[in-house]
Design a protein that fits this description.
469 residues, mainly alpha, three-stranded parallel β-sheet, three-stranded antiparallel β-sheet, 18 helices, 12 strands, elongated, RNA-binding
Length: 469
RNA sequence: GGCCCGUUCGUCUAUCGGUUAGGACGUCAGGUUUUCAACCUGAAAAGAGGGGUUCGACUCCCCUACGGGCUGCCA
């Protein structure tokens, strides 16, 4: 474990315009790992300054997503919109200090400027005529507050992932800090909030890399200390293109509904774009102690369900029966399934060792557990029905009397079934199929002996008799 | 269009000037087997292209290609 750094503060700052998608979840995870691994703080801020697109439903979905993923934040989530007065105050201070100015250009004028610039092949960065206007000549009209950004020189971003990134100041325009209706823009709000919240490390998507340069100008104007930046590459879809809803830009709720345990999601997401040597499957504790900014890759990663499945299977294999059952309940809850009753839960805990080998997701365990959860009459699917022909029914009828007096243990049952197969000049393998059909109603099940042992003599015989009819 | 970032097996990645370029997922072959899996063994599989720098480049520099981002009174 690195030395404790309680002074470290990270944050996740989603805008509530939709569900928590996989990219956002990973950004949150990185911030969480970084802070938690160092004894620092992990804060949550909702960037809801866009009143038209922000919704309470989205905020709720994001909080629920983080909650499911197990990413706990410190303190109450902060609403950026709720801090509008403070943002305006900073804008005023910059205005007074001459770091910002009132711009009376209307959106129409700006649009016309850009169109003309484009037509003439000039830079479309807007150059406000009000930048150096005499305040005495200001009209009595609504105005936006623009940052008076330096036009000479360059701004360099020292990024923990991307290295030193230099952007010439003439590539940056005077960004708007306060809209003409007096509300703050994101560009101003992030800086003010990050500063006020004491954020020391900003880990976010690299779609903000260029923005960081403009934001640094605000830090400079206010004389604030610039936090450490780490712009992480975005996640791409399987085709290498931008992630879209069609292939993986699903909300984390979808992964919950697909039955991936949150611990597995954390593990998989952590490995997507970050690595620690050859370590692939690890615990939260390990991830927290290992996670560092220099282990983050520079290239965009693609989401791979196959690997997620594998990681998920590994985690399931390491969970205790009790943990799995409680995750099963969560899965059932997420998918609208009927919760497991107390006896059912106990039964699954007892049977878990034969249920979990090979399972990659929670529903796969449920499917394997089906035989134990159902009651007669056993509903058989097509494949199961097919294995119950007249011959096999006949064999099953021979079996039941033998089972009635047998001692109910694996070795005895094995002897009985092997002997029975022998008398019919066949292998036990052939016999197993109709037995599966009888006991579980499916062609794919756990071992027939395991099922018989768990079901007990009476239920086993009853199901076989039912199938043999 | 301008600016910025990226590019190692199909995928996630290791490598931080000298390696038979390593691991994992997936794939294929074999083994095991009571079904599906799981599991075990093995194999195929990579430095985008072109120039430099250097005794020596995946690694440093430049160009090109491709991908992504920003360029909003969105975040």
């Amino acid at each position: 474990m690195p030395a404790p750094r309680p002074d470290i503060v990270t944050r996740f700052a989603p805008s509530p315009t939709g569900y928590l998608h996989i990219g956002g979840a990973r950004t949150a995870l990185f911030n969480w790992l970084y802070a938690r691994g160092r004894g620092g703080q992990f804060l949550l801020r909702i960037e809801d300054t866009d009143r038209a697109r922000s919704t309470p439903e989205a905020t709720h979905a994001i909080l629920a997503g983080l909650d499911w993923l197990g990413l706990d934040w410190d303190g109450a989530p902060i609403s950026q919109f709720g801090r509008a007065d403070r943002h305006a105050e900073v804008a005023r201070a910059m205005l007074e200090a001459g770091h910002a100015y009132k711009c009376f250009s209307t959106p129409e004028e700006i649009a016309a400027f850009r169109e003309a610039a484009k037509a003439e092949g000039r830079s479309t960065l807007f150059q406000s005529p009000w930048r150096d206007a005499d305040p005495a000549t200001h009209p009595d009209a609504p105005f936006a507050v623009r940052l008076k950004a330096p036009r000479e020189g360059a701004t360099v971003i020292r990024d923990e992932v991307q290295g030193e990134v230099t952007i010439r100041n003439d590539q940056l325009d005077d960004m708007i800090c306060l809209r003409s209706d007096g509300t703050p823009t994101y560009m101003l709000a992030v800086v003010v909030d990050d500063h006020d919240m004491g954020v020391t490390h900003i880990i976010r998507g690299d779609d903000h890399l260029n923005n960081a340069a403009r934001q640094m100008q605000v830090y400079a104007a206010m004389g604030w200390e610039v936090p450490v930046f780490a712009h992480i590459p975005l996640i791409h879809g399987p085709d290498g293109k931008k992630l879209s809803k069609r292939h993986g830009a699903l909300g984390v709720e979808e992964y919950r509904a697909m039955g991936y345990p949150p611990a597995a999601m954390r593990n998989y997401l952590a490995r997507l774009g970050w690595s620690h040597g050859d370590d692939e499957v690890f615990s939260d504790e390990q991830a927290m102690s290992w996670f560092d900014l220099d282990g983050i890759g520079k290239g965009a990663a693609r989401f791979d369900f196959k690997k997620l499945d594998h990681i998920s299977g590994q985690h399931i294999a390491r969970m205790t029966p009790g943990e799995i059952v409680s995750q099963l309940q969560d899965y059932l809850d997420a998918t609208g399934g009927k919760p497991l009753s107390a006896p059912e839960a106990r039964l699954l805990v007892q049977a878990m060792e034969l249920l979990k080998p090979g399972a990659k997701t929670l529903p796969q365990i449920l499917e394997k557990a089906r035989f134990a959860l159902i009651s007669r009459p056993v509903d058989r699917d097509e494949k199961a029905e097919k294995s119950l022909d007249d011959v096999s029914r006949g064999i099953l009828r021979e079996l039941t009397p033998q089972l009635r007096n047998a001692s109910w243990e694996r070795t005895t049952l094995e002897e009985i079934l092997n002997a029975l197969a022998g008398t019919h000049d066949t292998s036990f393998g052939k016999l197993a199929a109709p037995l599966r059909a009888a006991l579980a109603g499916r062609a794919v099940t756990p071992s027939v002996f395991d099922m018989m042992l768990l079901l007990g003599r009476d239920e086993t015989i009853a199901r076989i008799e039912e199938a043999a009819r």
